[in-house]
Amino acid sequence: MRKSVLISGLALFASARGLAGPLPDAVPIEAFAELPTIESPDLSPDGTKIVAKIAVRGKQVLLVKSLFGGAPVSMAQSDIDINWWRWVNNDWIVVGVGDEVNLYGEDLYATSIVGVSADMKKMLAVDPQRTGLVADDVIWIAQDGSPRLLLSKETGIKTESEWYPSVFDVDISTGKAKQVVYSHDGVWNWSADSNGVVRYGVIWDEGKKRGGIYRASASDDFHKIKLAGREADSIPEPVVFRTDGTALAFDDGEGRDALYEMELPTFKLGKKVFGDDRYDVDTLVATAAGNDVAAVGIARNRKFYEWFDPYLKEIQGDLDKSLGPGNARIVSWNCDRKKLLVEVGDPSQAGAIYYWDTDFAEMQRISWNSEILTNRKLSQVSTVRYKARDGTNIEAVLTMPRGRSAKNLPLIVMPHGGPGARDSEEYDWWSQFLAEQGYVVIKPNYRGSTGYGTAFHDLGNGQWGLKMQDDLIDAITHLADQGVIDPKRVCIVGGSYGGYAAMRAAQRDFPHYRCAVSYAGISDLGAMLRYDRNLLGKGVESYWKKQASDFSAVSPRFHAAEFGAPILIAHGIKDKRVPVKQSRMLVSELQKAGKPYEYLEQKLGDHHFSRSEDRLEFLKKLKAFLDKYNPA
C-alpha cells in the first residue's frame, strides 16, 4: 500500500497573498486568455502515450506524446472541428469530427469519425459513401487489442430508413465497415454489451422516449419493450450488460438519477446500486471488461467519482489524504488501470496533469494547465445557497476577489449555458478574470439546471426569461442582505443560454443591472428552434416547446425598445451551435430603437473560444465595457 503520494516538480499548492488595496502581484490579462495547455488527455491502453488537444501558438491541435521520450506528433490543422478522441488500441485512435454542410440551401452540421494512426501519419475516413448527418456515435471498442469498434450512424439523407441509424462493425485501421444491425423505425440510439453484440435500441418520438427494442443475443430477433405506467421521458434503459444476464440502468423514479440493477428481459428495476439524497448521479465508468460498474460520477460541490473498484477506491483515498479531498481527480487510465492520469488543483488554480504508475508513490507532472499561472492560487471559490422569492432552494458558485474585504463590492451575475447544465466548484477563466478585476462573481444554478433531481429541473419548464431570470435577481438580494455586495453596482455576463439571460436582463430586469454582456446569446427562440430542427431533427421541437409558451414574448429581439441597460454583444462568425445571426438580429433592432449597445463580431470565433486571440480580444472589450458602466 502506498503510504503517501509524492508529487515531482514544484509544490502544487502555493498560497495566495493576503492583500488590501491595489494588487501588486496582479495577474496579466493574457493569463486568462491563454488556452489550456492540455485538454482532455487520454492514456493509451499500454500506458505509454497520451492523446490530447494541445495549445500551440494560440490554437489547439490534436497531438500524441510519448511519456517516455520521443518527439510529439500532431494532426494536420484544418477547419474541421475535432470534437472528441479515444484510443482503440495502442496503434490507432478514433476521432470524432464535424463540419458545416449545405444541403438544399440549408446550412447543417454533419459529424463523422476518422481513424488516426498513433504516429499521426495516416488518417482514414470511415465508410464515407454511406453516411448521413450524424455518423459519430461509437457504442463499443474492442478490448482484445484489435482495431475494431461498433459505430451507430445515419447512412444517408434521402429516406427515413437512412435517417434512423444503423450499426457497423468498423476496422479503424482500414476505414472499412460491415453493417451488422439495420435501422429500425423510431430507434435513434443503440447500445452494445461487452462482447460487441448490439442488444438495445431506444425508441424516440417527437423528442420523447417511448420505449425500446431488445434482444438477448446476436442470434435473436429484436422485440419491443414498453413499460406500462412510466412517464415517456423517464423510461430506464440498460447502460451496462452484466455476464449474469442482468443489466445496470439509471432511473429517476425516486426523484433523482440513481444507478439500479435491472432484470432482463423484463426491464424491471431491482436494488439501488448508488444514489445521493441531493444530487443526480450523472455518469458510469464500466470495469475494464466492460460488464459491470467500476465507478459512478456525481457533481456535488465539486465533480468526483465514487469508486467501486477496490484498487482505484484505495488510490483515490490515497490522493485525498495526500492532497486534500477533491483536489485530485483520476481522469484517464490504461487497460489494467494501474497507470493513471490525474488532474491536481483546487478551484482557485488552473492546476496540472500528472502521470502516475501506481506501483510507485511518485507522480510525474506532464503539463501545467496554464504555463503562465502554473501552480498559482487566485480568488477563492465556494458554494452558497439561498432561497428564491417563491421559496425554491438555489445553489450557486461564488468567487470572492482576492485581496478585497468582503463588504459592498461590485457584483457580476454569471448564469451558465445550457440551460440543461450546472456549475460546480472548478477553475473557470471567466470568473477568475472578473474576480481579478475586483468583482464578486456568482454563478447561480437557477431552476431548470441539471444535477438536482427531476422536480428541480422541471421547475424550469416554460420559464425561459421568467422565473429563471428571477432566480438570478434573488442571488443579488441574498448577497446584498449579507453586506457582501453593493446592489447598485451589478452587471450580468453570460454565454450561450447565459448570453440570452443577459439580453433578457437588459430588457426586462434593467432596474437591477447597470449593464449586460452577452457572448453567443440567443435573441429569437423561434429562429433557434428552426435552426436546431435543421441540425438535430424534428425531435427537438418538444424540447423547445417546453422552454416557453410564447416565444415572441420572451425573445429579446422583439423588445428592443424596452432595453434599459447598455449591453455588449459578442459573437463568433464560425459559431456552429448558436448562429451569429442571433446576435446580428438583436443588434439591428437595438440600432433601430436607438438603444445603447456595443458589438464585437469575431471572424474566426466559434462557440467555445477555441483561439486565444479571440479570448484576449473579448476580455479586453469586456474590461473596457465594465470599466465604463460598472467600474470595480
UniProtKB/TrEMBL annotation:
Domain of life, per lineage: Bacteria
Domain Peptidase S9 prolyl oligopeptidase catalytic: residue ranges: 427-629
Signal peptide range in chain numbering: 1-20
Family annotation (InterPro entries): AB_hydrolase_fold, Peptidase_S9_cat
Keywords: Hydrolase, Signal
A Pfam family hit: Peptidase_S9
PANTHER family in the record: DIPEPTIDYL PEPTIDASE FAMILY MEMBER 6, SERINE PEPTIDASE S9 FAMILY MEMBER
Protein name: S9 family peptidase
Organism: Sphingomonas limnosediminicola
